[in-house]
Design brief:
Main location: membrane
Subcellular location: Cell membrane
Distance between the termini: 29 Å
Oligomer: single chain
Keywords: Amino-acid transport, Cell membrane, Membrane, Transmembrane, Transmembrane helix, Transport
Membrane topology: Multi-pass membrane protein
Shape: flat
Pfam families: BPD_transp_1
Strand content: under 5%
Order of helices and strands: HHHHHHHHHHH
Helix content: over 70%
Number of strands: 0
Number of helices: 11
């Protein structure tokens, strides 16, 4: 087979698109540089910049606080992993309970609905205080540690949000697919497992990942209950130095930790949009 030779018109169009792409990149780079220079000029030229720099951006204080903040960040990473698994499992179970049909399942639907309504409206910090300080006050035997109770607060709060995401995905699958699966001899649980849930999870992957990004930030609230995570370590360093730079160090580390997940979320979102566009074209 001979290789197809593009026509002169196609070559001209390709060259025009390349020139337009280069021109767009250059314009974007120049405009970004000008905006950044303007912002730096305004901030650095302000009367109180030197005081703010010494209070929030002290390199020596940041260097001294970094080891302790990194050690605390490892606690945040572990907490994020287990809380994400727990919230996903709780959200999926709750969503399935809310989609059950039949009067016999009404108590389960009512319980799942009340849970999602209540914890979607309750501020996370109040749930955290209630679990971390209220539950130990009951003086029950084998009460978990404050760290575990704080993790439970994160799980039950985010589980309510994730449940609604899963439920939206489940209900987006047309009922005819369940009917077709049942006609092939599958039970309702089997139809949910093999037909509905795979489609539902694929459709709601972007919002699920966005919830994970939000959870990644909120695991820092565990410091309010006492465990020494990155935020708590920064607070201790700030109290010792009377300088807020350790908080900036902790914030930068949280941002760096979130960048891979945010980038993956954007990639999944764009991939899903391209898939829907391709399906629409067909």
């Amino acid at each position: 087979m001979t290789e197809r030779i593009p026509t002169p018109l196609e070559v001209e169009r390709a060259a025009l698109r390349r020139r337009q792409s280069v021109r767009s990149v250059l314009i974007g780079a120049v405009s970004t540089a000008l905006l950044g220079a303007a912002l730096v000029t305004v901030v650095v030229g302000s009367p109180g910049w030197e005081r703010v720099r010494d209070t929030f951006f002290d390199a020596a204080v940041a260097r001294d606080a970094l080891p302790a903040v990194l050690t605390g960040l490892w606690l945040n990473v572990r907490l994020l992993f287990f809380c994400a698994l727990g919230a996903l499992a709780l959200g999926l179970i709750t969503a399935i309970l809310r989609t059950l049909r039949g009067p016999v399942f009404f108590p389960l639907r009512a319980l799942a609905t009340g849970y999602t309504y209540g914890f979607r409206g309750a501020p996370l910090i109040i749930v955290l205080y209630l679990m971390a300080f209220g539950v130990p006050g009951l003086r029950l035997e084998n009460t978990p540690s404050v760290l575990v109770l704080g993790g439970i607060a994160l799980v039950i709060t985010y589980g309510a949000y994730i449940a609604e995401v899963f439920r939206a995905g489940i209900e987006s699958v047309h009922p005819s697919q369940i009917a077709a699966a049942r006609s092939l001899g599958l039970t309702y649980p089997q139809a949910m497992r093999w037909v509905v849930l795979p489609q539902a999870v694929r459709r709601v992957s972007p919002p699920l990942l966005n919830d994970m990004v939000a959870l990644q930030k909120d695991v820092g609230l565990i410091s309010l209950a006492g465990p020494i995570d990155a935020i708590r370590a920064a607070q201790i360093a700030t109290a010792q130095t009377y300088n807020f730079t350790p908080y900036i160090v902790a914030g930068v580390l949280f941002v760096l930790m979130a960048i891979p997940l945010v980038a993956f979320t954007d990639w999944v979102t764009m991939r899903a949009a391209r898939r829907q566009s391709a399906e629409g074209d067909r």
